[in-house]
C-alpha cells in the first residue's frame, strides 16, 4: 500500500508505550482509517501523503488514556457528600441520589463527565452505570458515550434482591427493586439490543459484598454467553471481607474461585482489602483490577496492594470512580497512584511514574480488552496530544515523569478516538460543550434541590 494516510502527526515527542517503551523525540505517527499505520522519526515519515498534517512541535503524542472504572452519572453530585466513610457515603448520600435520579438528569451528568474526560485525553471509559438501570436508560448512556466519540463500556449495575447484608448495613431498599430473574432478563435485553463497534455493554452485579450470590453467578454466565467481560465492586472498605466471611463463610475471592467465576474476563473495582490467598487467586486467574486512588483517599478506604497484585499476575488499570474521585482527569490520578503506594508502604520506590503511565495506557487496554494503549503500527488510533509549553513542564529531563507528576488534563490540545479527532483546541467536535454544561447545571441542581442534599457553599454558575 502506498504511504498515504488520513492524519499525520509530525515533530512531536512520541511516547509509544510499545514493548520497548520507545520515546521518539522528533517523532511522527501516521493514521489510516481507525488504525495507526506507521510510527517513526519525523524524517522517516516526511514523505507520507496525508489528508491532514498536524504539527506537534512542543507537544507530546501519547496513547489515549484509559479509565477502567467510573460512574459518570455521579457527576450529578460532584462536590457533595464530603466527610463520610464509604458505607455512610453510600447509605446517606450516593445511593439515595441514585435511587431518585431521573433518566434525563443521569444523561446530563453522564455527558458532562464524558466531556471532561475527552478534554483530558481519555479515549476509553468503562462506565459502571447503575442509576437508572432500566434498558432504555442503559442504552441511552451507551449512545451518549458513542455520540461523544468515545470508546468504552457501559457496565450495567444490578442490585437484585434486598439481601440481609444490604439491610443490616443500612443501604437504601429503593435500589433493590427487582429479583434476580428480572435483572438478568433486563441485562439480556441490553446485550441483545445494543450493537456498536466502539461501545460495549457488560453485566455488572453491583457489589459482591451485598449482591445476592445467584445474581453474581447468572451475571457471569450471561457474560460468557455473549462473549463479553463483567465488572463488579469488591472489598473496597476494610469491613467488607469480614462482612462477607460472616454472611457466607468465605472471603469474596475464595467464594468466587470455588464457584468457578474467575478468569481474565472478571474485572473488579477497588479490591483493596485482599489477604494473601485472595491476591494469589486474583493473579493466577488473571483478573482485571481497576485501581481508584483518588476515590480511595477521599473516602479513606485504604491503599490497594498494587505491587503484589501485579506480581501475582493480575491486570491493573486506573479509574476516576465518579463523584468519589471528583475529577475525570487521569493525569491527576496517575500521580496519586504513585503517591498512595509510596505513602502506604513508606517506601519511595514502591511505585514510579512509568508504572502509573503504563496502568493508564497499555495495562488499561488489556483490562478493557481493546487493541489500544500504545502507539504502534496496527494498533487502534486512540491518541492524545499534550502541550509541553507550560510552566509546569520546564525544565523537562524525564518526559514521562513530567507528564505524571506535573501534567494536567488542561494541557491536552487534541484527543483522537478510532482515527477521528473528537476534541481539539479546547472544543468538542462532535457535541455542543456549552449546551452540555448548561444542561448539567440545570438538571443536576434540580436533582440536588429535590432531594434536599445539603450544600455547604453555592457556586455562582448554579445559583
Condensed summary:
The protein is α/β, with parallel strands linked by helices.
Description:
By secondary structure, the chain is α/β, with parallel strands linked by helices. The protein has 2 domains: 4-63 and 375-426, Urease, subunit C, domain 1, CATH 2.30.40; 65-368, Metal-dependent hydrolases (TIM Barrel, Alpha-Beta Barrel). It contains 18 helices and 17 strands. Strands 1, 2, 3, 4, 5, 14, 15, 16 and 17 form a 9-stranded mixed sheet that branches. A 4-stranded parallel sheet has the order 6-7-8-9. A hairpin with a 7-residue loop joins strand 1 and strand 2 (23-32). Residues 61-422 form the Amidohydrolase-related domain.
**Uncertain segments:** 459-463
Q: Give the strand tally.
A: 17
Report the end-to-end length measured between terminal Cα atoms.
58 Å
What gross morphology would you assign? globular
Radius of gyration based on Cα positions? 21 Å
CATH architecture of the largest domain: Alpha-Beta Barrel
- Helical proportion, percent range: 25-40%
Beta-strand residue fraction: 15-25%
Organism: Eoetvoesiella caeni
Domain Amidohydrolase-related: 61-422
Domain Aminodeoxyfutalosine deaminase/Imidazolonepropionase-like composite: 27-45
InterPro entries: Amidohydro-rel (IPR006680), Metal-dep_hydrolase_composite (IPR011059), Metal_Hydrolase (IPR032466), MQNX/HUTI_composite_N (IPR054418), MTA/SAH_deaminase (IPR050287)
